[in-house]
Structure of Acetyl-coenzyme A synthetase:
Amino acid sequence: MPENETTAPSLENLLHETRAFPPSPAFAAQANAQPELYEAAEADRLEFWAQQARELVTWSTPFTQTLDWSGAPVAKWFADGKLNAAYNAVDRHVEAGLGDRVALHFEGEPGDTRTVTYADLQQEVSRAANALTSLGVEKGDRVVIYLPMLVESVVAMLACARIGAPHSVVFGGFSADALRSRIADAEAKLVVTADGGYRRGAPSALKPAVDEAIAPKDGEPATTVEHVLVVRRTGQDVAWTEGRDVWWHEALEAADTFHEPVAVDAEHPLFILYTSGTTGKPKGILHTTGGYLTQAAYTHKNVFDLKAETDVYWCTADIGWVTGHTYVVYGPLTNGATQVLYEGTPDTPHRGRWWELVEKYKVSILYTAPTAIRTCMKWGEDIPAGFDLSSLRVLGSVGEPINPEAWMWYRRVIGGDTAPIVDTWWQTETGAIMISPLPGVTATKPGSAQVALPGIVADVVDDEAHSVPDGGGGYLVLSEPWPAMLRGIWGDLQRFKDTYWSRFEGLYFAGDGAKKDEDGDIWLLGRVDDVMNVSGHRLSTTEIESALVSHDIVAEAAVVGANDETTGQAVVAFVILRGEHADRGATPEGAAQVQEELRAHVAKEIGPIAKPRRILVVAELPKTRSGKIMRRLLRDVAENRTVGDATTLADSSVMDLIAAGLSSAKPGSED
Ligand code: WTA
């Protein structure tokens, strides 16, 4: 199946939003980004980026070339320049006399805190870089990081960057199997992990998953991992392999606090981050150093209007996702920001935890996901009303379309009706924000990401790649290369070309449906491929289907993302059981048992985030005559809609059977 199997987005639900919120004159006057920024980028796009790269990033060897697109679609930005990302994020601020500035206000889930200045960070990153070196990690070697949200997580990423070893952070919620495939694909030499982390008030183990992930399995050899560096977080007992496992604190204590950052080429790999695609295997998205850092810093400064001396910034994303890479680590630290780093969940120990932190640290810029906002809406506005949120002056949203109701609630209840909201569209692949209002310039509209940032060229096109007129809908594309763009899929250039560059000649195809409103503003309409978006996390239908059919009792599976009020989408699976197990789905108890068994299996194969909300045992799946599963029809069923046009089905009675079986099924338990 081609990677880009697409269906045109529905234009039925076109929004007619007339509300607009221009920036206050006071905000506009002080904003970093002024209207001239668009003009400068328009006048000479490449020179504009070169200027950003010179102003926001420190180069040990200045670049003379801006963009080399001769190897398209693999771009080279600032290729003859050299720099070090960790030096930019840490050392240069200390050299500028800002060593005492707080870089991180760490807040652990149990309430323990730690204040880390830029000078502290320099020492710790230097020690960690020396420790990695003494464990045999060299420039170009890959390091997998599998950690909760800790100071050490930021330090580990920067230590890798400091020695030129690309990191690959794997979200701590992924299972041992998911971790194993990522370690194997990246051929990692070392893994950094922790004994465990705190989750909802209790310690939860992490290291056993690493032990399992790197051991030999089912005839597959052990992975390439030589050492496991273990942060002590919870103090729980861990199994220990002498010679392989090393305590983080011991390695760092033994290491020198001086380390000379390794200057690397602008195109040296900075990280690989795995993300779900439309086929089973996650893609290792490759980002390099100079262009990525430039756009990370540029967007962070202008989209959030960062004033490094006075702002307290907080991005709630986990470092396991790209938002954590660009807007917890590289963007804010390169800009010398002070930020909050929080280990836990919004509702532990109480549902006002986030707002308590905003009050405590006087957070002025908050960046979070629509699913979190909708959850807080559900809990009720009296909870945030109990805290002083008056320090907030800019609010950001990312990860999925934000519905106008949630947008209005965010602005009114959290932003005191004054803080501008920036709805930022981007992807793991784009590396940094691409489409967003500028808070001092744009009159914001609830629900729309609106305009490409200065320096970015985006469009909405129809099936034939023609730009649609205002009021029209189609596919979101990016027409010109941008500095933070992915440089490929790790080890698979062909897949990179097929996935992003083959749908429309010469255009980057993002996989999102979009429309332009009457003003030409862009509205994102969700994915048009088989990628789901659950609580702002990307999940692949095929990946979950593969996990389901890897269970002994499953013959066939089809997965869809059904609309969900809180999480955006929810995973719903339809499974056909193997002949000898077919009876198990016949009774409600049997079906419930199958559902729980398979949910647990998906959690083991991929991780708890991928667990289907509902799993329905069916006798048949709707297929076209050519054998393609018609997910559109299953989505209708999952969303309790009348099933749409089923005339292309090989057997049209299938949908009646499925709908009949459905009424007795119950959703799985929430967790
Ligand atoms: C979706 C997260 C609408 C989109 C940074 C994209 C959004 C995918 C928005 C990338 C937004 C992200 N409005 N949709 N503001 N931001 N998306 O790689 O479908 O985890 O393709 O990157 O999230 O998800 P990823």
Q: What stands out?
A: Residues 275, 321-323, 398-401, 423-428, 449, 510-512, 524, 527, 533, 538 surround WTA (CB under 6 Å). The mean pLDDT is 93. The first strand starts at residue 67 and ends at 68. The chain has 20 helices and 30 strands.
